[in-house]
Amino acid sequence: MKREQHAWDPPQVSATPVRADGCSRCRLVSNEGQAYNIFLYRPDAPSPVTGYPTLFLLDADTDFLLVAETIRRLSRRPAATGVPPLVVAGIGFPEQERDLYRYFDLTEGPPAHDPFLRPHEARFGGASVFAQFLQTTVASYVASVVPIDPVKSVLFGHSLAGFFVLDRLTHEPRRYFGSIAISPSIWWNRAHLMAALPAIGAAGSLYAAIGEWEEELAPWQRTALASPRYTSIRHERRMVSNFRELGDRLTNSAAIFPALFETYPDEDHASVLAASLARALRFIFTKQRD
């Protein structure tokens, strides 16, 4: 007997993976023998004579598609959005023990003070080597695949990767055309950033953003996340307070590079990345604070 099909019955079809146009993935191995996932987005717009600007995106395992698709949409009308066609070169950490590799590659040493992180469970201090890997191995690979402008590269990081972006700016202020630090973990080495960033003088442009609810529980979190330990972590790390103090120090310093620190209302550590992305890109490429 033939089964009667109702309007609400799901259609019997085969699903296939969705692939993003212009995107690819490969693996690169550093001189130290560490393998990384490399995600690449190439715009379909004609290349400028000098090559495309390039966004080097950290934590690409989680953020690549969001960033690539946002850039694809914005760069269709660069005169209207302020965002030109960009290459996105995403660097992803190994799937296994990802957090441990992040602690090593994104830091120059253990946190100055953090009672919630157990230093004996992680390794630290690989930031300089990782930065060199980005500037040589990754950049050379990208240049071999797509024409890029060597003087228009942007470094983008969120959370601990945002701290890495600020830290590298203090070490090599003119390395990148622009730096984007979203929800940077300034607490990792607050004293260093507070002293070094305002003192660097000339540098590439800097855009930094934080969510309003990164130091306190947001209203919608106060039931599900209201544990004493979780609340203590937020208070101890002072994400918003540190961010605003660093922004004020930079504004009142002798630094002569374009910089913008913005706090996003009703956003938290997870949501502020998507909320700030368009403004971050527009500021880096137009220097407009609107």
How would you describe this protein?
It is a single chain. The chain is an alpha/beta fold and 290 residues long. The protein has a single domain (23-286), classed as Rossmann fold. It has helices spanning 60-74, 78-81, 98-105, 127-145, 160-171, 190-196, 228-237, 239-251, 272-286, and strands spanning 23-29, 35-41, 52-58, 87-92, 148-158, 178-182, 205-211, 259-264. An eight-stranded mixed sheet has the order 1-2-4-3-5-6-7-8, sandwiched between helices.
Helix/strand layout:
Elements lengths: L22 E7 L5 E7 L10 E7 L1 H15 L3 H4 L5 E6 L5 H8 L21 H19 L2 E11 L1 H12 L6 E5 L7 H7 L8 E7 L16 H10 L1 H13 L7 E6 L7 H15 L4
Parallel strand pairs: 3-4, 3-5, 5-6, 6-7, 7-8
Antiparallel strand pairs: 1-2, 2-4
Total domain modules: 1
Helix count equals 9
The fourth-level CATH homologous superfamily is Alpha/Beta hydrolase fold, catalytic domain
List the strand order in the largest sheet.
1-2-4-3-5-6-7-8
- Report how far the terminal alpha carbons are from each other: 67 Å
Amount of helix: 25-40%
What is the H/E string? EEEHHEHHEHEHEHHEH
Q: Kindly report the CATH topology.
A: Rossmann fold
Radius of gyration: 21 Å
Beta-strand fraction estimate:
15-25%
